[in-house]
Amino acid sequence: MLEELKEKVFKANLDLVKQNLVIFTWGNVSGIDREKGLVVIKPSGVDYDVMKASDMVVVDLESGKVVEGDLNPSSDTPTHLVLYKAFPNIQGVVHTHSTYATAFAQAGRDIPNIGTTHADYFYKDIPCTRDMTEAEVKGNYELETGNVIVDEILNIRKINPDHTPAVLVKNHGPFSWGTSPDNAVYNAKVMEQCAKMAFVAFSVNPNLTMNPLLVEKHYMRKHGPNAYYGQKGQKH
Amino acid sequence: MLEELKEKVFKANLDLVKQNLVIFTWGNVSGIDREKGLVVIKPSGVDYDVMKASDMVVVDLESGKVVEGDLNPSSDTPTHLVLYKAFPNIQGVVHTHSTYATAFAQAGRDIPNIGTTHADYFYKDIPCTRDMTEAEVKGNYELETGNVIVDEILNIRKINPDHTPAVLVKNHGPFSWGTSPDNAVYNAKVMEQCAKMAFVAFSVNPNLTMNPLLVEKHYMRKHGPNAYYGQKGQKH
Amino acid sequence: MLEELKEKVFKANLDLVKQNLVIFTWGNVSGIDREKGLVVIKPSGVDYDVMKASDMVVVDLESGKVVEGDLNPSSDTPTHLVLYKAFPNIQGVVHTHSTYATAFAQAGRDIPNIGTTHADYFYKDIPCTRDMTEAEVKGNYELETGNVIVDEILNIRKINPDHTPAVLVKNHGPFSWGTSPDNAVYNAKVMEQCAKMAFVAFSVNPNLTMNPLLVEKHYMRKHGPNAYYGQKGQKH
Amino acid sequence: MLEELKEKVFKANLDLVKQNLVIFTWGNVSGIDREKGLVVIKPSGVDYDVMKASDMVVVDLESGKVVEGDLNPSSDTPTHLVLYKAFPNIQGVVHTHSTYATAFAQAGRDIPNIGTTHADYFYKDIPCTRDMTEAEVKGNYELETGNVIVDEILNIRKINPDHTPAVLVKNHGPFSWGTSPDNAVYNAKVMEQCAKMAFVAFSVNPNLTMNPLLVEKHYMRKHGPNAYYGQKGQKH
């Protein structure tokens, strides 16, 4: 069942290790088959070096129930499902505890758009969510984490999730998404690199300024209707 | 004698190198057989790349005397023994000079619980001990180092060592422990990663705040009576 | 056509990866045949691990038109061409988003000449350009990026580009050049290392001072008429 | 001639690369045969990956003249010779531009003894030299660099060079020495690690304090007349 998607999700999970975004089992990637309404996700707490494609767990998008798989799905599965429901164009979701992005989440600060590296992939600042309430933490915590993300992106910041495909959960860590499981991992790596550079940049100049003209230019050069970066037919 | 435990302790010592927690010979791992009252520990000052499982030294828990082994045990052995006596549930102890945890020890600052990465493994801040006195330093130094750790954990902070399995010795470096030699190394790695992220987080926002609800939630999600992270029967 | 130069440019692009100066496709190297008035450059958005020497694109220095190659040249090609025209002695140009140099560009700060590591290769501070104007960003952006660099180097700072072979484009990242594609990559690596050390040095002492006598001495020891570093006939 | 020493010096130079203390050709190691009054040193500006043991250059300690070797000796040779003459017990000298130690040199700050990692190998703060004068820089620069080091260690700070085997040359970088070429490389690595940890520690707590009792205890535990670290007969 969904062998091709399982293979993609499995490989995207291994890429988290290759890209130095996770240690131990601290990350998870999922992918979705929107026609069938099924999500494929990494099992919970399984070491990356013994994990197989067939260990991936298939979960129903609506009910959250396991449809196939012997292992428990990632404990973050309810968060992934909320994101898939709220952001209808996304095809993959990633969660990590990558060093610099997580540090910004712990600091409660957005990763600001202060350079073209950021603007090439994220149109706006990557927002950090508000504190979760007692009801949210003591209730269905992982599902409420998803709700807090969606509230921050769509209502509080009014951000288009397709143009700024990442978020920081305060005192927790980053989530990213994309047009495929692979693309969500790519965005997780860009976010981590942008967080690292922002840390250094603010240390070197706490009063730095961004030229707002570059935000528009760089994002549109790659993603706008007249994009001219890369080769014809290539997606970014 | 204790071949299986020697093998475990030997491999855990090599893992310190793999996890980038030590350079040269700057670290040591021990394990305990509580029934026999014997501790197995790395020899002092031996290079990791020539060390063999049979080089591990067996020491008597009560007397501290070498029971088996041709080499001197780690000079930190008396510290390990104090920890095994004071914390009756622990099965492994680790000492390193890992970069970021040692820097916090040099700074005389606790590694604060400011995110779920920390709260997943350490219930409280990882405490930094007080300055050692002249009597302690000039007396049985390594044994007194253990006493200062135990005093800090049990008396000054009133911390449960099973729930916060690590400490910083001021101007020295980190010690960690756990349910096995392997688990103590795991906790040493988590502590180092948390120290690195705390360094970055405070640089980015010196006035950051932790949501206290997450401390409870994340620790209990993994370690509480109703833990639901990972696979059934799996320990964390 | 220009097979030898293509090979050099191809290898110099791979060296960006080896030197940890780029992730993904975030960098480009070009080289020039000044007699023929032709520039060889990396194609746009092609992964380093599938790229071949024959993928390099040949572009006319004056018109900017593709003379040979099936792929689109790097979107930064117009910037490279402006630099080749304005700096008549340079034979290679490099652009990266390397971590520390890019952070200084985001901070809007020059990489200051505060040590002999810098002075061995760059006579002056590596300047950061002014903000680009609306006309420049909305016009022929990549060409105007080149013009802003040249304006900063030659007019605003009055720097000899052969003696200080690098620049930071504000809120964007570093460009470097040199006596060959290889030498331009070498200068990109030195710039990155100098940026990293400057970040640490200013964190450790915000009021640090440079001994100006060392600037003169070290640059001239390697590059002056009486240079005595290295072996006879060796270039630096 | 001196084949064994050449082999040792050659391997110690390669260790600089393995220990991540140098990039390109930015470092050099020498060793001495005190009976013969001859110093063996790395040639100037030769890549580490093509260098052979037979490329090492033999220089006369007193005259500084090349006694054997087809290549120019390191341009820093006169500095090495001054150190061998002033510090009669040392058998190896190392110079690098390692990242964190060089940043402290650029900052004009000593690497302070703030932890047992430092105290295990360096009894005092690693001192940073004063600014060199015009006469020193424009005169026999590399020899005067050595004189400035010796003046700082012996006269200004009154440090025993055998107990604190390293120095920072202001706005330049670190030198270290030891009981062999290998031991000098070891000390270079410890210095770099201590500089990195001091950078982090001061960022985390600018007002940190060192317990002076630990300085005495840790240095003497390894190097004093009653040293008890390591195995019998082992040197540290």
From TrEMBL, chains A, B, C, D:
Domain of life: Bacteria
Catalytically driven reaction(s): L-ribulose 5-phosphate = D-xylulose 5-phosphate
SMART domains (alphabetical): Aldolase_II (SM01007)
Domain Class II aldolase/adducin N-terminal: 7-199
Cofactor(s), names only, from the UniProt record: Zn(2+)
Alphabetized SUPFAM superfamilies for the sequence: AraD/HMP-PK domain-like
EC number: 5.1.3.4
GO CC, alphabetical: cytosol
GO biological process: pentose catabolic process
PANTHER family, A to Z: FUCULOSE PHOSPHATE ALDOLASE, L-RIBULOSE-5-PHOSPHATE 4-EPIMERASE SGBE
Protein name: L-ribulose-5-phosphate 4-epimerase
The organism of origin for this protein: Xylanibacter ruminicola (strain ATCC 19189 / DSM 19721 / CIP 105475 / JCM 8958 / 23) (Prevotella ruminicola)
Phylogenetic classification of the source organism: Bacteria, Pseudomonadati, Bacteroidota, Bacteroidia, Bacteroidales
